[in-house]
Write a structure and sequence with these properties.
124 residues; alpha+beta; Aminopeptidase; six-stranded mixed beta sheet; 3 helices
């Protein structure tokens, strides 16, 4: 669980190389009318633009409301339109919500050498 991102991490999330990387950031407005990050999905393509690794994070109080689904759908659509062949991610084995979400989009699960990690892979 990440409770807070340091500025250096936020800069890394928002400054990207558009040839190989893409990020979509879901934002909202808090009670003081300030913008706040609700979730982020990123994909980083290999140099051959054959596959991309993705990562997704949703703020704890936003989980179970469809934001993760919307972000994942957006990055899948983007990667397909870019001509990538597959999308790959690593999920904690205990994160059943994410594993079920990935399965709903057609990702295949694969055990890794680390029993706490499951690889998910989607042919685009």
């Amino acid at each position: 669980m990440v409770r807070q991102f340091p500025h250096s991490e936020m800069a890394r999330f928002t400054q990207i190389d558009y040839d190989r990387k893409m990020a979509f950031i879901a934002t909202g407005v808090d009670a003081q009318a300030s913008s706040e990050t609700l979730g982020v999905v990123r994909a980083i393509a290999d140099p051959d633009n054959h596959s991309a690794e993705f990562a997704i994070i949703v703020r704890s109080d936003m989980k179970g409301q469809g934001l993760g689904r919307a972000l994942l759908e957006r990055i899948i659509r983007y990667c397909r339109n870019k001509g990538l062949q597959e999308l790959v991610g690593e999920v904690f084995a205990e994160n059943t919500a994410m594993l079920n979400l990935a399965q709903g989009f057609g990702f295949q699960r694969k055990r890794t050498s680390d029993p706490t990690i499951v690889e998910v892979r989607l042919t685009l």
